[in-house]
């Protein structure tokens, strides 16, 4: 099992990583070295804005290592392959595929998209890529903190156990809440405002209902929010900081 899974997930000395490819521009939009599920959720959020395919890749002579700084310059050698991997032409987004090194697919450096010749299109693509990076970071931050601080979402944890122990419907999770926010936001500024508002309401409501050991819960939520915004790479909003006081 370990040998097989190493083809799909990063591990010791692993060369596996993930790329988000966009057929409309025939280029890669985003690279994730950590978690294919986070990247797939990112692709789901972006599906209302751009058609994408999540590729599981292994660094190889046929699949040169890309980064978020240069992935816009990489595409497939043959356009026929991108058509096949996006569901034989079916209008489904996103899709996912594992590229085997013994297959016919080959990724190569082909230069920047043709859209870069037009300033307005170039700006739109760069804006889309920046938003994709922001969404991916938010998804990572939400998934990680939801696990590390699962005691804060104890009701959600009970609901999740009930879903697989008793086959009950699964209610919305912190991750799906975040995906909803990011799906309907038009840009990073709007998304940031909505994410901050979500946290402000979540923490305010929680601190008002956690009547037992309030200081303990306040400290837990403070660590929760601090870690989320640290992963996101931004400062915790002042309004949320005020809820925790100066301690």
Tell me the radius of gyration.
20 Å
Calculate the terminal CA-CA distance, rounded to whole Å. 48 Å
Low-confidence parts lasting 5 or more residues at pLDDT below 50?
86-90
Largest sheet: 4 strands, mixed
The side-by-side strand order for the widest beta sheet comes to: 2-1-3-5
Q: Kindly report the average pLDDT value.
A: 86
Strand content is 5-15%
As a percent range, the share of helical residues equals 40-55%
Secondary structure: number of strands: 6
Shape designation = globular
Number of domains: 2
Give the class from helix and strand content and strand pairing.
Answer: alpha+beta
Brief overview:
The protein has helices at 2-5, 36-46, 79-85, 119-148, 154-165, 174-184, 188-209, 214-232, 238-243; strands at residues 16-22, 27-32, 53-58, 74-76, 95-98, 107-109.
Topology of this protein?
Layout (H helix, E strand, L loop, with lengths): L1 H4 L10 E7 L4 E6 L3 H11 L6 E6 L15 E3 L2 H7 L9 E4 L8 E3 L9 H30 L5 H12 L8 H11 L3 H22 L4 H19 L5 H6 L4
Parallel strand pairs: 3-5
Antiparallel strand pairs: 1-2, 1-3, 4-6
Helix pairs in contact: 2-4, 2-6, 4-6, 4-8
Defining traits:
alpha+beta, single chain, 247 residues, 4-stranded mixed β-sheet
What does this 3D model show about the protein?
The chain is an alpha+beta fold and 247 residues long. It has two domains: 2-115, no CATH class; 149-243, no CATH class. The chain has nine helices and six strands; from the N terminus they run αββαββαββαααααα. It has helices spanning 2-5, 36-46, 79-85, 119-148, 154-165, 174-184, 188-209, 214-232, 238-243, and strands at 16-22, 27-32, 53-58, 74-76, 95-98, 107-109. Helix 4 (119-148) packs antiparallel against helix 6 (174-184) and helix 4 (119-148) runs antiparallel to helix 8 (214-232). It is globular.
């Amino acid at each position: 099992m370990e040998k097989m899974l190493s083809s799909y997930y990063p591990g010791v000395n692993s060369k596996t990583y993930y790329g988000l490819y966009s057929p409309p521009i025939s280029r890669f939009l985003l690279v994730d070295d950590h978690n294919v599920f986070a990247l797939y959720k990112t692709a789901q959020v972006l599906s209302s804005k751009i058609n994408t395919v999540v590729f599981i890749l292994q660094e190889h002579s046929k699949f040169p290592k890309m980064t978020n700084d240069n992935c816009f310059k990489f595409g497939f050698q043959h356009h026929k392959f991108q058509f096949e991997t996006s569901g034989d032409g079916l209008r489904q987004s996103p899709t996912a595929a594992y590229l085997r090194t013994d297959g016919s697919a080959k990724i190569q450096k082909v230069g920047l998209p043709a859209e870069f010749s037009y300033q307005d299109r170039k700006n739109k693509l760069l804006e889309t890529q920046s938003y994709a990076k922001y969404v991916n970071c938010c998804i990572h931050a939400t998934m990680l903190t939801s696990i590390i601080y699962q005691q804060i979402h104890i009701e959600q944890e009970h609901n999740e156990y009930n879903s697989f122990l008793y086959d009950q419907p699964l209610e919305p999770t912190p991750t799906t809440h975040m995906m909803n926010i990011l799906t309907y936001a038009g840009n990073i500024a709007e998304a940031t405002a909505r994410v901050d508002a979500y946290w402000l309401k979540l923490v305010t409501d929680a601190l008002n209902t956690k009547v037992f050991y309030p200081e303990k819960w306040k400290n837990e939520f403070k660590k929760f929010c601090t870690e989320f915004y640290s992963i996101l790479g931004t400062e915790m909003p002042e309004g949320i900081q005020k809820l925790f006081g100066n301690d």
